[in-house]
């Protein structure tokens, strides 16, 4: 066994002679894993009453014969034309209230009984047919679940979901604060999905009633999950032991992956970082997504189910990955917990919207291209490392909290400032932790915090359940808590706490926020922290400290000199409040203080990422990745680089060219962290 | 009696113990006026056949007992869910032709017979129940009327409105110039509302036929007014003497408030100035809106029905009002004619889209906040001033003409330049008048001009009725008229005058406009006026003077040296034409010349607003407001500042810190201006 | 006979006394041609069962009596209200899937049988009534055909069109690559028009399946053509010899004019250049459009059917034409092959959306305006030149290929870069040829290339039929071929060639493109050509030369030093490949080298356009047009300027003020080029 390597493979789109060429190339590239049948529905079931597995049989037979690890997909990510024609209501109604007709993918109404019935039946048939093939290592259900539907069937399903959640209209009316603007519902049937024709203005983030819109997001996440769960159940009937997953999308706003996590046997995701000219920002963002995925299943390894070997196609501008970047980013996946690294796609599509998306094999099928060479070199490296890091984990004493409800709530809030993006703030805080190479868990607000020394929770707008108690306990026992402006504002229903801001955290933080000023993006209020000035923007809370110590102060405006950053001491620990949105350096300054000695190796070396994975047998592997310019760093450990065989003593110079990767097996194992 | 002070109050959203806290706070703040029941429909009528006034009874009883002045609202600004479900056609069809379902507010079709019936019935019941309560000082119908509907019922109502207006299709075809593009209507039923599915492209301001779109705007204004009038009539049946109003929105394009004015017993409006970093620009804009509102009812005092004590919530960025600004702007309202200054809202909403909108009492209900303190201090000042300025008026010998038809016509015109905004030009001209502290009426084009010495009419695109004659008479008797580029272009039907431009004004102005050049916003043509160069932009008319004197000339392009500003002498007066859009300083230069000695006190002191209100007994009150940096100015009068008791002789230094306000009762009264 | 001069004339919109004034003015202006009845449908047929030609009879009678050349229009560009009411399905369904109701123009569904029947019947009646009037010189069908419809009737027509094109669903499925995303169609009825409700996202250029969208563009072009062809046939029944045309729109993306060309008796178009502050860029663009129109009919003269004498109205900003520009641009039309130059409009509209569009006669009907004077002066010049250039042609040895399929395909492609615009690149290459005054044909890819020495084909994304063979033959016999990045990518179905890029051109060009890098617009990679650096942007192909010579190289990034421009020698000729998008100067540098001695007169004089037209009798006329600043140039020929009578010897100084125009009849005629 070794790190899974391969990707989406669609030989049904090609004549048999191409299959031969494919396998020759796979061998050159060290590819051992194929995902089969994504989007093959029309192929597998050309009519409602007719299945045809003949080609897929041949594909599976060949893959098996070639020794591939096989990941069969269910094809529910794209319905066939006959289905849309037979069941027009299986197509979605969009945010504008328009019923769509046949086209694109990810287009099925999650509440359509016909779509559900047909997709589940096909999943069952696939499992029945291929479930006992020992080459099948995992099931891949659907594809990149997402989007939403606002049809009347979803309306009905939403009302059922609401009955389940609230029990009574009184409770619902209270939750949504419907006395405002005369919205008191007197019959469940009066409730319609919130969209451009009902509660919204200026798009999905502008709603008259945050409550209904927030619940519709929760409902949609659950409704899509319903499809996954139903297909998984059908697979389980025939394939009871093979793990089932779906390819998620990392930092994807529309779906609350924390609600999905219990239903996944392992996590997997598609790594297509958005365009960003800063390679460090991109690297940090990918690391955050890897860690979020790793955090879904309590730190278990995950798969990168897709990445492009070179270019994407759907962006406005699709640059090629620079030399070395594919390798660097692939190893970064592994460094952050991936046990498999797959491509979309093994052979480039002939036509339609992804024909220019990169692939291991281009239209001419060449194996003498730069891209293929980089793919093959990486395959060779994976082979060299073998199973060394499979199943390895990354213990952490610091946690970053991610909360989809807060993400949704803060971005659909009217006031104080539409320029505040949850992900912007989250990635800023994460970047400082990542830059310091802090071993870090990225976990939901429901996570057990008892194992952490530091918990960082930016923009924790909504505070649910006993979170405040758990955070207080963390601090009392000597831990550190860091939160920011716009946290502690609303309860689970998105209603304001009728107390001082920041609500349940006010007493822990030893302060109240009396006012919240907001300014356009070009307005900077300098904040002085530890003698240095940093830029703050967007939101400026006016803090009235109770017993909190003032750590930083505003520099201008009528609140110049008042607290911008505070620290309260509680028990043996500390609770920091950052009452504004600081720039990168300001956030780093706060977090470095808050972290104390919890920073990782080479914390002060810019652009060099260091992570550790500890194998089940206790062997420690240190990954050193250079996302920036060439530099020389001291080795943090004794050990041997698995990629080159080079040995290092702690403190030895390590030469890090741009895109350098080292996987250092440390000389002394640690005890099993379990 | 004193200046009304209070605001929107919704105790039905809170438990009774909160009511107690509210009234304690109101007493601290000097609040004596509450607007009750805005958006309370679902509460008051939980089903079509069931009314429930029990809570409102308690609210009114308590408010009465507390000595409040009560302004009951009719709740027609937001329909309840049961109504939308029972009568789906009561919901609007939007500009895109989509029937909306239940959501938001201001969402009722003005032509819906069901909505009309139900809203009027409820208004009648409210008046029946509370009309004889002596604490009720005014009725507030609906809320911020606005928007439009394009449904088939509106189509039918529009056709009736057109029959009424035009009598025959021939007249309509001529008015809309339908021979252009084969639009000759041969049956009334062929006429459909103009929207994105019929005459429009690129949105509401781009239409193939300006005539139908203009008439639809007039129709919509009348249709919404129809709802107000019907509710008012129902109120009048039970409450024959209490004045009825609705809260308007100042410089609001969609509704022609001049068409509404005769139906209002007094004017009131909601003062939420748009984001503008220049406090002077904001102050001037608010002054314009106050004066427009004051002008609706011949100079009678009006109410500010809403303003926020601190932040708004619906803007992208919602800054807090800086210290002193609430007081300054509230006094500015009074200085410009308000007899009441109310807040939205007295207690901050718990949830939904206005939960972060500012309030007198925040979520924690604190009375020790900066905002509450400023509110309370202002309440104390209002108490101190008492009834001194109630009913006081501001005589003016200068008028600024505002014309919704011109506003609509010039902004939906194809050619010459879409970057010309009516409000931009109007506010530029007003700002120069405001800066000069000219006592000013802002009046419709139908106003009696016989009492004015100077009439300023920017962008008077459409010329209706006998306006040109009245303007000519003004000039002949020694008055001054100032108008601008793009004036005098079209008749009441938006058809071009088939004469030289500017149509009915050409002879008065002594010139013709032969061509109209237009340029992008970054192109400046310098105009030399009285030896100084000013920037001109957007539109450059090429003027052929007849007997007009050339006052300013263009500096560049093929028309360099030709007239940009002219003055014609007629009888004892003058008529100015500004053939381009000048910058602030250029407009000020023209207007200072045109005004002659009509400027007000401290006309040359930047950012200091001075207005006068003369009480019914003839007492003169001079308001001095500093919207800018601290400065010292000479007192323009002898008198006593009602806020501090300080006495001034004319010429004494007045120290004006930022946001300073003085209300100087002048030592010598003048005779009653009536 | 002389150059046709006049324009759109709508006396039916005016009382008879205005007609008298019109003709007096026409005489002053030398106007001899009138286009009648555009948009007169409602007027001519006030009800389905009633025609009324009385006014048009009078109009035609008067025009005939006045000696006008008459161009009757069919009015199908705008349906009357009664038609839309009687046949709601004659109105279009838009890209968003919304059925429109009555409004605007160009609004008829091309698949509506009712619209077709009624429009054809009226065309037949017009031809029957006026076809034998000898003053009728041409028929003008419809107006500015364009737009599209997505209704179910169009869906049905599209499916028929597809059956015709593909014969079988298997062939269609292969063409559209439907195995991708499970789109395999198993019944023709499953196919729906591609729009926002089916295959599209983010608008018309973003589709999941390029194949269906491309075919819908082809279908739409054909469907609109169907209307033209049917009306033409009806006219032909009564007017068998008079030529029939329609006014096209030059560089208009939605219609493939090459598919229309065989059905036109002569080409005509409306010249409204888009706003561009560079007069040279505008001039070059108009020249390209003229040449494209000339190329539709094998080099035959065409008409400018519309241009404005001064301003447009539909733009955001509508500047006046500067003095001399109307004359310069009108002569430019003639210089590039026009035999008639007409205006929209002869008298300015009274109302609706074109009331501010310029006209020969303004609202006041003045003939003493600058615009009228320029119109009249030009009329006098046309009279002076008489028939000298009528029917004259412009032989060329260089060709620029234009291909609507490539235009559509490259702009709807996902990847590599959405910032690449076909027209941007085409106009850049044309501008370099125009600046060099190269006699140039602008022709389709199906054109016979055997007469050319140089063929330039930018962004030839799609390669169809035997084009590669014909290009290869051109090069083999000593010609030169120039093509660019993103050429040779897809076949006629928009599927990638399964070979090295650039597909069928790879062998001719002696290279393969291994990767295509893309960058945002602000990223420049300098390309060094012949020792000089030029800017390249957007797309950077990484070229692996086979036997191509490297002409230019990239300056930065990991591919610095690799080929950016290459030249392969084949037979006696050369094939250039420009693997990136160069700036103007870079393109000019490549083309100057490629052209060798094929440049025209004054090729190095900026902004001076020189073209030649050779009359049927062999007389050569050299047009010299100055689009830039004043300058003096040597006369390229011996001859006499027809406008001034001035004689020149070759080499004499010609004084060229701004907007100068000379029409030099050369002293020695050449043999008939036929």
UniProtKB/TrEMBL annotation, chains A, B, C:
Pfam families: Glyco_hydro_42 (PF02449), Glyco_hydro_42C (PF08533), Glyco_hydro_42M (PF08532). Zn(2+) binds at residues 109, 149, 151, 154. The keyword Transmembrane helix does not apply. Residues 607-665 form the Beta-galactosidase C-terminal domain. Residues 396-596 form the Beta-galactosidase trimerisation domain. It catalyses: Hydrolysis of terminal non-reducing beta-D-galactose residues in beta-D-galactosides. Substrate binds at residues 105, 143. Keywords: Glycosidase, Hydrolase, Metal-binding, Zinc. InterPro entries: Beta_galactosidase_C, Beta_galactosidase_Trimer, Class_I_gatase-like, GH, Glyco_hydro_42, Glyco_hydro_42_N, Glyco_hydro_b. GO terms for cellular component: beta-galactosidase complex. GO terms for molecular function: beta-galactosidase activity; metal ion binding. The keyword Hydrolase applies. Residues 8-383 form the Glycoside hydrolase family 42 N-terminal domain. Its EC number is 3.2.1.23. The active site is at residues 144, 306. GO terms for biological process: galactose metabolic process. SUPFAM superfamilies: (Trans)glycosidases, Class I glutamine amidotransferase-like. PANTHER family: BETA-GALACTOSIDASE GANA. Belongs to the glycosyl hydrolase 42 family. This is Beta-galactosidase. It comes from Saccharothrix carnea.
């Amino acid at each position: 066994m070794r790190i899974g390597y391969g990707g989406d493979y669609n030989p049904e789109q090609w004549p048999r002679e191409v299959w031969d060429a494919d396998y020759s190339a796979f061998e050159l590239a060290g590819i051992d894993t194929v995902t089969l049948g994504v989007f093959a529905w029309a192929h597998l079931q050309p009519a409602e009453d007719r299945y045809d597995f003949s080609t897929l049989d041949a594909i599976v037979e060949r893959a098996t014969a070639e020794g591939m690890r096989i990941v069969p997909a269910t094809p529910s990510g794209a319905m066939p034309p006959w289905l849309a024609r037979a069941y027009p209501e299986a197509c979605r109604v969009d945010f504008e209230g328009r019923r769509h007709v046949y086209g694109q993918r990810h287009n099925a109404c999650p509440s359509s009984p016909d779509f559900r019935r047909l997709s589940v039946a096909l999943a069952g048939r696939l499992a029945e047919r291929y479930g006992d093939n020992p080459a099948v290592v995992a099931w891949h259900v659907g594809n990149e679940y997402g989007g939403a539907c606002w049809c009347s069937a979803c309306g009905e399903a939403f009302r059922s979901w609401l009955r389940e959640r609230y029990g009574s209209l009184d409770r619902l009316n209270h939750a949504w604060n419907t006395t405002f603007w005369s919205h008191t519902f007197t019959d469940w049937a009066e409730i319609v999905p919130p969209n451009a024709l009902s509660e919204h203005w200026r798009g999905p983030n502008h709603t008259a009633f945050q409550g209904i819109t927030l619940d519709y997001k929760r409902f949609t996440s659950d409704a899509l999950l319903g499809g996954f769960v139903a297909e998984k159940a059908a697979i389980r009937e025939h394939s009871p032991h093979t793990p089932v997953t779906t390819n998620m999308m990392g930092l994807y706003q529309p779906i609350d992956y924390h609600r999905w996590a219990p239903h996944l046997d392992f996590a997997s995701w598609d790594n297509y970082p958005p365009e960003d000219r800063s390679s460090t920002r991109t690297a940090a963002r990918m690391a955050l997504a890897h860690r979020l995925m790793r955090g879904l299943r309590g730190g278990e390894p995950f798969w990168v189910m897709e990445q492009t070997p070179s270019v994407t196609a759907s962006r406005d501008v699709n640059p090629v990955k620079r030399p070395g970047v594919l390798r660097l980013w692939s190893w970064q996946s592994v460094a952050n917990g991936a046990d498999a690294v797959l491509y979309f796609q093994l052979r480039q599509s002939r036509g339609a919207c992804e024909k220019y998306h990169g692939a291991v094999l281009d239209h001419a099928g060449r194996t003498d291209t730069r891209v293929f060479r980089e793919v093959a070199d990486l395959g060779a490296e994976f082979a060299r490392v073998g199973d060394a890091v499979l199943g390895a984990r990354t213990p952490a004493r610091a946690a970053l909290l991610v909360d989809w409800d807060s993400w949704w709530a803060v971005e659909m809030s009217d006031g104080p400032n539409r320029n505040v993006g949850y992900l912007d703030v989250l990635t800023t805080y994460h970047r400082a932790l990542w830059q310091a190479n802090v071993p870090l868990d990225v976990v939901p607000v429901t996570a057990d915090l008892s194992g952490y020394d530091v918990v960082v929770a930016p923009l924790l707008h909504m505070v649910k359940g006993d979170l405040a108690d758990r955070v207080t306990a963390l601090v009392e026992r000597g831990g550190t808590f860091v939160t920011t402006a716009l946290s502690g504002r609303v309860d689970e229903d998105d209603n304001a706490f009728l107390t001082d801001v920041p609500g349940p955290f006010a007493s822990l933080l030893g302060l109240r926020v009396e006012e919240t000023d907001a300014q356009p993006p070009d307005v900077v209020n300098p904040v002085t922290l530890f003698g240095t000035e940093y830029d703050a923007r967007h939101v400026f809370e006016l803090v009235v400290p109770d017993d909190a110590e003032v750590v930083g102060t505003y520099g201008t405006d009528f609140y110049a000199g008042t607290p911008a950053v505070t620290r309260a001491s509680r028990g043996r620990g500390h609770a920091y409040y950052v009452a504004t949105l600081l720039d990168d350096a300001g956030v780093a300054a706060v977090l470095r203080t808050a972290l104390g000695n919890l920073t990782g190796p080479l914390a002060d070396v810019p652009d060099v990422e260091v992570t550790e994975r500890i194998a089940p047998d206790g062997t420690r592997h240190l990954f050193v990745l250079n996302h920036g310019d060439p530099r020389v760093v001291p080795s943090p450990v004794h050990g041997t680089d698995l990629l080159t065989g080079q040995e290092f003593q702690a403190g030895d110079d390590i030469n890090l060219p741009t895109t350098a990767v080292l996987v250092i097996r440390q000389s002394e194992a640690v005890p099993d962290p379990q």
